[in-house]
Every structure is written in C-alpha cells, then in structure tokens.
Amino acid sequence: MIDVVVIGGGPAGMSTALVVGRGKKNVVLIDENKPRNAVTKESHAFLTRDNIEPAVFKEKGRRDLLRYPTISIKDGRVLTIEKNEQELFELTTENREVFQAKNVVITTGLKETLPAVSGIENYYGTSLFSCPFCDGWEMKDKPLILIAESAQALHVTKLLKNWTDDLIVTTNGNSVFDANQKKALELNHIRLIEEEITELKGNNGELQSVTFKSGEEVERSGGFCTTTLDNKLPFIEQLGIEVNEAGYIIADMMGHTNIKGIYAAGEITGPSQLIVSASQGHMTGIGIIADSCEEAFQNT
Ligand SMILES: Cc1cc2nc3c(=O)[nH]c(=O)nc-3n(C[C@H](O)[C@H](O)[C@H](O)COP(=O)(O)OP(=O)(O)OC[C@H]3O[C@@H](n4cnc5c(N)ncnc54)[C@H](O)[C@@H]3O)c2cc1C
Questions:
Q1: What is the CATH architecture of 114-225?
Q2: Can you name the residues that pair with 203 across neighbouring β-strands?
C-alpha cells in the first residue's frame, strides 16, 4: 500500500513529494509532464532559479526527489480515482496501471485557452505572454500590445503600464470595456483598437506587427494576452471535491480539501507562479505528515 500518490509533477507536486518522502512515507508521483509553461524558454522570479529553462527546472526537481528511497516517479496520466472496500483510493492511469493509496494529492495545474487569433501559438511563450510578473521585465519599455478578450482587461492594462509607456490594447473585435473604462484608457494615453486581428507577423516567435480587419498594421515588439484557465478532470467531480465559482479546487493552507485523504495544491487551486505553487506543495506535504502523526500518536 502506498502512503501518498501525488498526481502532477510540477513545482507543487514535486515539493509535496519531497516533504512527504523526507517524512518517511512512501510516495509515488505520477506525472504526464505537460505543464503549461513548456512553451516558454525561461522561467523568472524563482529565487536561486531566475532565468531557468522549464525543462531544466523539472529535471533538477526530479533529481532532488530521486535521492530518497521513499519517493518514486511514474510517467503517465491518471484517469480515474475510486474509493475501494478497504477505504483506499484506487487510481488508474491511461496505461491501465493501478495504484492504491491512503492519501492522494492533486497538483495537476491548469490548461489555458489563448485568444482566438490565428497563429498566436507561434508567439506565445516567446514574445507574447500572460503574466507581467513572470515576463514583464524582459518586455519592459518596448512597444507592446495587450490582446484582452476578457473582464481582466482593465486590470492587466493597469499592470502593464508599469512596464511600458508604449501600450496598445485590443479586444480582438469583442466588447470588453465600458464607456468609463474607455475614458480611463484615453486619460492614460493608451490607444484602444476594438477591431478583430487578422494577422500577427514576426520571425522565430518574435512578434513584429499586428494587422487589423481595417487593414491597419501596427508595429509591436511583443505583448501580453488574457487567457482562460481551467483543468476539468472528471475525478474531481466524481469524488465530490468542492471547487469555487471559477472551477478551482478549494483547499486550505495545508492542502486539505473537503474529502478526507484528498489534498490539493498549486494552480489547480487557482492561477499563480512557480514559487507560489512550490510553497503550497511544501505546506501540503507538512499537512499530510502532521495528519499522519496525529493519527498514529497514542492519546490518553
Ligand atoms: C508562458 C508561461 C510563462 C510562465 N512563466 C513563468 C515565470 O517566468 N515564472 C513563474 O513563476 N511562473 C511562470 N509561469 C506560471 C507557471 O508555469 C505555473 O505557475 C506553475 O507551473 C504551476 O505549477 P503547478 O505545479 O501547479 O502546475 P504545473 O507546473 O502545470 O504542473 C502540473 C503537472 O501535472 C501534470 N498533470 C495534469 N493532469 C494530470 C493527470 N491527470 N495525471 C498525471 N499528471 C497530470 C501536467 O502534465 C504537469 O506536468 C508561466 C506560465 C506560462 C504559461
């Protein structure tokens, strides 16, 4: 019997596995290895790991884990989780491997949907990004575009103004800003283009210009876009795990969900950054060990 199965091997999952394995519990980490930051060349703002390639970050993390005989890593995707007669969680992967565990940690991250612009995936992660705290410094003081199709538009606009004074905002043909918000953009010298984008031009992932339906082409060196983030995993609903209105799992600081033995950490509990996910994973590891010690201790 396995003490803990961790589903997902990003910073959240690897941190949980490290703490649990160091707590002398057997832990199996199952990872399909498709993190959403795989499109980018460098990750930023993780202290001691600034500018690291995502694949190198993962490789270093896995190396840390494999120093411990209590931790093993399996490649694969978990498809189902069911509770069996022994009150253990039974997990099945798409390769039909079955694991029985006392506790399960969900650290599966999120998947993102980019704005509906033809060819946008050629630039996303190289010169078009979604998080200014991750990539704002690299894009600072450049002529930038914000492709904002959602209600986050004004918030992201305000943030981006911190990194550049040369910002054009486009809604790609959608109606996103109300009259007051448009006035605020004008006051802040930010041009708004509400037309549909017809073409993104550039080289090797480096954006050079954006063309609109009217035929107007604006030169831009890169930019940001709003994205939709979710990860609809059938077992979340099947197990009755509580999610918030955005669809993210509700977990406390120690990773507890509403289901005993099921923990969650990292972006599946809400969008964040590498260091935040790692720290949530660490706290969840502490939570699991503390719960297990509490259960094992003979109280009078
Ligand atoms: C373009 C881009 C640039 C970014 N740049 C930065 C940056 O510079 N700095 C920063 O701090 N953050 C950055 N981020 C955000 C960062 O990638 C995330 O915050 C972080 O990866 C979240 O960690 P996580 O462990 O929660 O999830 P992830 O890292 O996404 O890991 C989840 C893992 O679980 C696996 N998985 C999912 N479902 C299953 C399943 N059913 N079975 C098994 N495995 C499964 C996935 O394949 C994946 O390997 C960036 C994101 C993007 C998109």
A1: 3-Layer(bba) Sandwich (3.50)
A2: 206
Q: Which residues of the chain have pLDDT under 70?
A: none
Best probe residue, ligand 1, of 277, 279, 283 (max atoms within 8 Å of C-beta): 277
User: If you measure from the C-alpha of residue 150 to the centroid of ligand 1, how many angstroms do you get, rounded to a whole number?
Assistant: 22
Mark out the alpha helices in 120-239 (DSSP H runs).
Answer: 132-135, 153-160, 179-187, 234-238
> Residue whose CA is closest, atom 19 of ligand 1?
273
Assess contact for 54 and 34: CB atoms under 8 A. no
From the CB of residue 256, how many other CB atoms can be counted at a distance below 10 Å?
A: 18
Query: Which residues are CB-contacts of 186 (< 8 A; sequence separation ≥ 6)?
Result: 192
The mean predicted confidence, pLDDT, of the chain is: 97
Ranges assigned E (strand) in 78-143 = 78-83, 89-93, 98-106, 111-113, 128-129
- How far, CA to CA in Å, does 7 sit from each of 17, 154, 289? 10, 35, 17
CATH classification code of 2-110+231-296: 3.50.50.60
pLDDT for 265: 98
